[in-house]
Predict the 3D structure of the following.
Amino acid sequence: MKILNKSKLEEVLNRLGENADVYVPMSKGLQSGFYPWKSLEGGKDELMLDALNVYQPPKSVVFPQTERMYSLYQEGKGLKIEETYENDEPRVIFGARACDIKGIICMDEVFLTGGYEESFYKARRESTTIVANACYEPGPSCFCAAMGVDPLNPEGADVIIRDTGDAYIWEALTEKGEALSSTIKDLLEEKELSVPEAKPFIQQVDYDGVAEKLKGMFEHPIWDRTSEACLNCGICTYICPSCYCFDIQVKMYGHEGYRFRCWDSCMYEEYTREAGGGNPRPTGRERFRNRFLHKLEFFTERYGHPLCTGCGRCIVVCPAGINITSIISEAKEADLDA
Amino acid sequence: MHDDHKCNCEQPLVPGIVEVIDIKEETPDIKSFYVKNIDGQGVPFNVLPGQCAMISTPVGEGMFSCTWQEEQEWLQFAIKRVGLMTDDLHRIEVGQQLGIRGPYGNHFPIEESKGKDMLFIAGGIGLAPLRSFIKYCFKHREDYGKIQIIYGSRSYADLCFKDELFDLWPKEKDTEVFVTIDRPEEGWDGEVNFVPTYLEKLNPDPANKMAVTCGPPVMIKFVIQALEKMGYSDEQIITTLEMRMKCGIGKCGRCNIGSQYICLDGPVYNMVQLRQLPPEW
């Protein structure tokens, strides 16, 4: 098997960086996320390949928080769109976990199926190669397996690396993965190493049958109680690897400007507020219910699996202590006649 | 089910440009905009009755039901001034270029309604989408039976498409038009009533009929109740849903009701389908 010795890691990342923007899990001050390898400042930032989940998932590599779509030029009664900004520069996500890649697979389904292929997402996605880092020791808030994710063999990976201590086992799975491997083949060694032993999950949750059951729970009292603590702050949607909702806005400087899209959040009142003043989800309770039903029922109905990948980030960051695994368990146990 | 391409564009979020060739003031806050391609040749795409398009100015982008398409000539949109973007639209003049993308969404059941008597019930700007179906029926008159149109607005001034309501449509073969306003006013000797109450008073027979309704959500709710009381079955009741929209192609998230995206799977539903949705509409 192919082996990447950890002593060669920096050299590998530098080499990959010659042909692509390489995004790695990294801490920057108090923040952590997938940032360009080239932006790492020694003594200040730190590569975090060992961490299970950095705060920010890598979704912004394929779906940036703000993305220009096209130019606008208005003069007199004329309106021109002279340029569109699809970005297909090669990029590599290095060291993504199975849950985060599953988030990207969810976005692939949204943006690339259903009758319309969205061109801005497509350009970024097709030029992205994913090196997955298999997980052998689930963290205290991890529950990916319960949501149908295999942490040992991440779906959607072009290359999988497996941490054996001093070296990674390197396995290319796709054409993209082979192409990436060929650029660093002199830095890989041939050696037999044994795969680490997988540890059990600490967080237990049973999603089986929940999507189906939730169909009959739209008006169940569970939502009154569970939504009470929610501040509608939106942090759960911000750090979620699969939340993809976006807004389209415009920026004009006199005659010239551009239309862009940016992340939006179903937690906010403006999200569904109509120009005429009506709002089908006017209070936090309706927005909270829609978010969890979207994750656990509606998406499953449409795409065959939930829009939660079990990364556990929302459990960690929620200022109100809302825990999606408790919502799943409560739904599972709920009395439908309540 | 969702994999049929309705749009040829490689870049579904990037609009094409059209030119406004005429603007007609329908009411104090509703104007009709007629648009065609900027080279003067035809329309950017064909729409079926009930389908929508995203229209944009440098201020914003909004989803509007197409009020009528005259073959390869022009697309018409009757638009009410309610917010920032529509306020901007109401200031433009003939010759202005606009962004447009579409067509989006499903359409009225033009095939399933063939051979049936048609009952159209609209309130306010709700006549704008219904008009595409009404005019389609007139255009293919032999395919449809008797046509009844019940329409109401707050006042006489707020009634849309007055020349058609009072002059053109009543002259069509086997057609009745019933108009009502909410409050009495000088010079109006017609019906004064809310649309659902007027509907109950007229009590149109449900036999071999399709009832299609559009208007403010509260009107739609009472119209549906009235139709049920009169014996209309769920299959005979058609309406359109409205939600805030941004992308128009089922991706940006916000227009969902349950697992349905109104921009993509809707906006037209019958009561059988609506009963399967969570009661959020």
